[in-house]
């Protein structure tokens, strides 16, 4: 969370700076009375850098993917107590001979 | 990685046996969907700001949106370690979900940034 979040804030700051320098560039164009054809090169570079940082942050900050397979390693322990209400110990299995229990324990 | 591949193979086999009824952990699927939704919304906002600063108007801005969503999808696939089926039930979840809601926030922030930078 920490590192990705800091990178995201840094990317947003870079984008803000790019916006600010574009505003300044437009002011300059107004003075020299030229038409705006496209943003200057350093703004494009800043935008690309900010996009890369924000992409990295946007992919890492929201959290890891969790496996949806019922037999994967992280789901095995969690899914056991989900049926706890339906466990029944008072069933006909108690009339079975006790040697079977010993075998099961092995 | 190898474990995931193994378990996906086992899952495929067991779903074949039980007449193609998919079984998966719905809670984790929902959490994955939420993660994807966050990523897409944030990146469409960032894409809108970028399109506004660059001064795009008309079709080029939408082309930029498609490009950014394609990069996002590639990033999400890379994040899941190229084994989509152990985290999602279909490809559409990764590639298409949240596309149009992201387009709305993209257009909002596109016009917002364009107004701030180029008009005022």
From TrEMBL, chain A:
GO terms for molecular function: inorganic cation transmembrane transporter activity. The keyword Glycoprotein does not apply. The keyword Transmembrane applies. Its main location: endoplasmic reticulum. It is found in: Endoplasmic reticulum membrane. Keywords: Endoplasmic reticulum, Membrane, Transmembrane, Transmembrane helix. It comes from the Eukaryota. GO terms for cellular component: early endosome; EMC complex; Golgi apparatus; plasma membrane. The chain crosses the membrane at residues 42-61. It is a multi-pass membrane protein. Belongs to the membrane magnesium transporter (TC 1.A.67) family. Component of the ER membrane protein complex (EMC). This is Membrane magnesium transporter. It comes from Juglans regia (English walnut). The lineage of its organism: Eukaryota, Viridiplantae, Streptophyta, Embryophyta, Tracheophyta.
UniProtKB/TrEMBL annotation, chain B:
Pfam families: EMC6. Its main location: endoplasmic reticulum. The keyword Endoplasmic reticulum applies. Residues 1-23 are annotated as: Disordered. GO terms for biological process: autophagosome assembly. It is a multi-pass membrane protein. It is found in: Endoplasmic reticulum membrane. The chain crosses the membrane at residues 37-56, 62-82, 94-114. Keywords: Endoplasmic reticulum, Membrane, Transmembrane, Transmembrane helix. GO terms for cellular component: EMC complex. It comes from the Eukaryota. PANTHER family: ER MEMBRANE PROTEIN COMPLEX SUBUNIT 6 (PTHR20994). Belongs to the EMC6 family. This is ER membrane protein complex subunit 6. It comes from Juglans regia (English walnut). The lineage of its organism: Eukaryota, Viridiplantae, Streptophyta, Embryophyta, Tracheophyta.
